[in-house]
Amino acid sequence: MKDLVGSAPACDADAFRHEAQAFIDWAANYLTQSETLPVLAAVQPGAVRAQLPTAAPLYSESLEQLIADLDRIIVPALTHWQSPNFYAYFPANHSVPSIMGELVSAVLGVQGMLWVTSPACTELETHLLDWLVDLCGLPARFKSTGTGGGVLQDSASSAVLCALLAARERASDGQANESGCTQQLVAYGSSHAHSSLDKAVMIAGLGRRNLRKIPVDHALAMDASALARQIDLDRAAGLTPAFVCATLGTTSTLAFDPLPAIGDLCRRAGLWLHVDAALAGSAAVCPEYQALLAGLEAADSYCFNPHKWLLTNFDCSCLFVADRRSLTDALSITPEYLRNAATDTGSVTDYRDWQIPLGRRFRALKLWFVIRRYGVAGLQAHIREHVALTQRFAALVDADPRFEIVAPVALNLVCFRYRGDNQRNQQLLEALNSSGALYLSHTLLGTQYVLRFCVGQPRTTSAHIMSAWATIARLASGLERAGSPAR
Ligand code: PLP
Fold it and tell me: pTM, whole model, 2 decimals?
């Protein structure tokens, strides 16, 4: 038994070198073959668990067994988000520098909850987020050198929740944290805002019936005059309008809410304005797309996800606030065991006060590696390439009279449909995805079932776009011939 226990890897440099090499070889092979694998996992529910032992192993298993099971059990049950043929939902970029950043972060294994628990973890993050303010043309008030600052969250969902909690405390004069919320606070977003807003409203205790879904205009962007009317109605009813979430690049169609008008309203009415640019925000590394953020000066908080479209592994979501005190006032709590001299001076940032959890990992490393290894020019080329590929795909759809584009094509998303009923479009999507050649997702616009083609994988090329379109056109022809899609 002693021998068996002894075969578990030691936590030392030699064991690391040996095991890391094996996994790096495995990872390189995966990257080579992932393009040829069916993009969407085609397994039945329970298929993975059926292959796993019912109990954890008592004794150490070999590295070879582990790697064999990755290939045997895990890979066949994956949807390959890094495949160049992945066009569903949103991109979840990775890159070599980012993967290396993840590796180094895991090796260091630091907890950056307080400045003192790893000063580099905090200061690199603060500094990088200031870089991003300049790089993306964001308002200077989001910089740490003024009253604001940025923080890396795990997700845009956490970012909107933190912003809403700060807004709740501001609107209730800090009373909601103390005595519970006595006012009926109201939050607003368009009917196309991401569901993370609904979830934040639930968690923050506002109550879902106090979330107003404002109608959208013909471009599927929030109707600012409807927002103004709703705020007036709520005030007249004795409620307290407190929070607006505007979206720059909605999930369904990448529509941009009219930020200047919304910002104006929020300023005049004293509402917290949060701006969610989870996917589209990465495009602002290109000066030509910074106009899409016009009006951001009025925002109290802003979020975008490098883990979507800026070559950085999940999780990495940037949250900027104009007044960091409003965030830390809402989220700070200091038990004795966290007290330390650096915090007591008031001159350091403790990021635990800017987020929900206490513990935090060294996320900034991967973003730092990405920005330095690509350079600004490399990041811009990445975005521009995808916008150009999206335009190419849109032109192909446009040239085929059997299809129609149903929403303005912005940045890297084309929403289109086969000119037929919803069932036909659903059948087409199912046929496409079950072919394994590519993966698309859908949305509903009004009552119309619509296909979404989102370009954003670093390895997607013009040849992939042409091949994707050839598959779509071929399966649509099958629809016409057989009344159902060709396989
Ligand atoms: N906001 C928008 C506009 C999104 O498109 C998404 C994800 O698709 C989110 C928020 C949620 O992002 P996260 O997974 O980082 O919480």
Answer: 0.95
